[in-house]
Amino acid sequence: MRKAGAANQDDRLELVRLTARIGAITGEALARSAGSSLQSARGRLAAAERAGLLKSARPLRDTPALFVATAAGLHAAP
Asked: What is the pLDDT of residues 34-67, one digit of tens each?
């Protein structure tokens, strides 16, 4: 049985891989892709950002934040 912390880390690393593959992702796109709620997707993105694996930006006002993989995230999730 895996510990919850290990499962969360695996989930974050898979999220980094997905983000790196497509270049950038929004909460809405992740929710659609994962078949989850928008709130859950935003929580996953925020957790990965707090861990230093993703970075967010709002290049346009009144649009969803875009998340991209950081160098640390790319290193952690080859």
From this structure: 999 999 999 999 999 999 999 999 999 999 999 9
Residue 27 near residue 42 (C-beta atoms within 8 A): yes
Look at the pTM and tell me if it is higher than 0.85: yes
- Dihedral, CA atoms, 53, 62, 25, 11, nearest 10 degrees? 50
Which DSSP state fits 63? Answer: S
